[in-house]
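ok trying this again, last paste got cut off
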Amino acid sequence: MNADVVIAGGGPNGLFLACELRRAGVTPLVLERLAEISTQPKANGLVGRVVQAMDYRGLYERLSGRPGPPTPTPVYQFAGFGLDLRAVAGNPLYTLPIPQRVLEERLDAYAAELGVAVRRGWELESFEQDDDGVTLEVRTPAGRQRLRTRFLVGADGAHSTVRKQAGIGFPGSTDDRFVTRTGLVVIRDPGLVPETGELEVPDEGRVRPLQWHWTPRGAFAFASFEPGVHFIGSAEWDQPAVDGPVTFEEVRDAFCRVVGRDVVVEPAPGAAEWKRRAGSNARQAERYREGRVLLLGDAAHVHPSFGGPGLNLGLQDGLNLAWKLAAELAGWAPDGLLDTYHRERHPVGRRVLLHTVAQVALLSPGEDVRAVRQIFGELLDEDVVRRRIAELLAGADVRYEMSAAPHPLLGRWMPDLPLGTTRVGEVMRAGRAVLLDFTGEFGEAVEPWRDRVDHLRAETPEPPAPAVLVRPDGYVAWAGGSGLDEALRTWFGAVTAVAG
């Protein structure tokens, strides 16, 4: 075997999975067909539960450049509607603005620190799997090579070679009614308000950055992620098809058409990449596993980008898969553990497809859409509706199916409770399962699993249960006073003796 796991695709999802596996004692190998990290504009940040997940892995400060844990965002957007979340109790929505290029650079540096092998300019061409592993044919700068691995993970994007050759269907739909254009500019417009970052728009007044805005002509967005430089984006419906290279002038003119006036912009220094995309796909792999081959990120699901859910979905795919794959390789995984990756993550992907397609519909032009938007906007005056939308965007409505006795925390994300001089987010950073014991009565029960589950005698002002068993991905596998042994066997396998 050349590696325990080969990951085809070295974007954020593939790199993060590799880091998680390496921390769990697995030897991964990342194959990335591009020789260098792409500078093309893509995602502009992390939105949702994944921000807390990065904190639980000790990566939030590295990625954000700010000390301390993340805090909920006071405002966000859904389909061009502003979401004021300041009065929403227990606001679940977190954001971390970071261009995808920077995110990849920082994850790549983290992978190097962990000793992860990343081979750039290496492209998977074909593979065959058998009962013991997978044999890969790879094109490298030095010629073709054959590699052998125990598992192959396809993190190779929407046109995934891994998914296609594994024979996994990718059903869904394509909406080709609109064109989006994006790029990086310097805004010199007198309508830009430096103090707030807002922009003056006809008939709308000042509009906020960091969200899509609906107009009768389409939708637009703008935001600054570094001083003096703005990302701009536009979506136009029912426009003539355009071919050929994308230019600054095309991106600028489309933005101005949708805004409804000329906006004074110029190319950002060094901005050579302009992006045009016709329509969007909403597709999901029929299954996330085929034998020793698994799918991750865009290889498993593609959807409209409105609301920015892509990295929340893909990185949490990796968070869910890594510990299960590591358990399989270590030999202690209970029967069917690896299959729960599909069972848990496929419904989450389907949920993201639902709300992103709904946002496309709400951003479409037309008087009928205007009427629907008016009613929907009135509903957003209610705190309970804003909270439901925030939970949807954050993925905070995710609840994995568990076999243990019902408890409000079961299957949900473990809240970042204070634990004396520490907190949940800090004790999860080892990437291992943790039994939070609030009574001190469960140490003996968990002892046989101490090689795979940490036991912590914890204190918190209002314990949610006598004890809580948290999986390595941050989700609660058990909470209560009885049934712990069954939960440990279900998720962490049988033991024959106390681990030495």
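PB: full thing came through this time. The mean pLDDT is 94.
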